[in-house]
Amino acid sequence: MLESKSEFPFPGSTAFLRPEGRELRIIQHQCDGRLLVQRVGPEWDRSQRATGTMTVERADVAATRDEAIIIAKRRRAA
After folding, report:
1. Burial label, 45 (beta-carbon count in 10 A; 0-12, 13-18, 19+)
2. What whole-number distance in Å separates Cα of residue 57 and Cα of residue 75?
3. What is the count of structural domains for the chain?
4. Closest CA to 23 of 34, 8, 31
5. In the predicted model, is pLDDT for residue 71 greater than 70?
6. Could you read off the pLDDT of 41-58 as tens digits, one per residue?
7. Which of 1, 53, 56, 68 has a 20 to 30 A CA-CA distance from 30?
C-alpha cells in the first residue's frame, strides 16, 4: 500500500468523506474523475466487505473533516 504522505487531493493524501467526515486515504485518480480510496480508522465496519478500498466521486471528499461535515450541515439547513 501507498504509505507516503502527500497534499490533498493527490494520491497518498488524507481525505474525508462527506457528509460523515470519515477518514480516507487517496490511492488513485481514475480516468472518469472518481477516486480509489482506502478506508482508514476504527469507525469503518469491515465485517461486510473483504477489502478496505472503495471508489468515490471527487465531489464527495474534502480536505478536512470539518469541511466535510460543515457542507453537510449547510445542506440540511437549506
Report:
1. exposed
2. 18
3. 1
4. 8
5. no
6. 776 666 666 678 899 999
7. 68
Indicate yes or no: pTM above 0.90. Answer: no
**Which burial class, exposed, middle or buried, applies to 15 when counting CB atoms under 10 A from its CB (0-12, 13-18, 19+)?**
buried
Note whether 36 and 27 are within 8 A (CB): yes
Residue 9 falls inside a structural domain: yes
Domain with 22, as residue range(s), is 1-46
DSSP-assigned letter for residue 77: H
Collapsing DSSP to helix, strand or coil, 65 comes out as: helix
23 in any annotated domain: yes
Cell numbers for 57? 466521486
Contact 44, 52 (CB under 8 A): yes
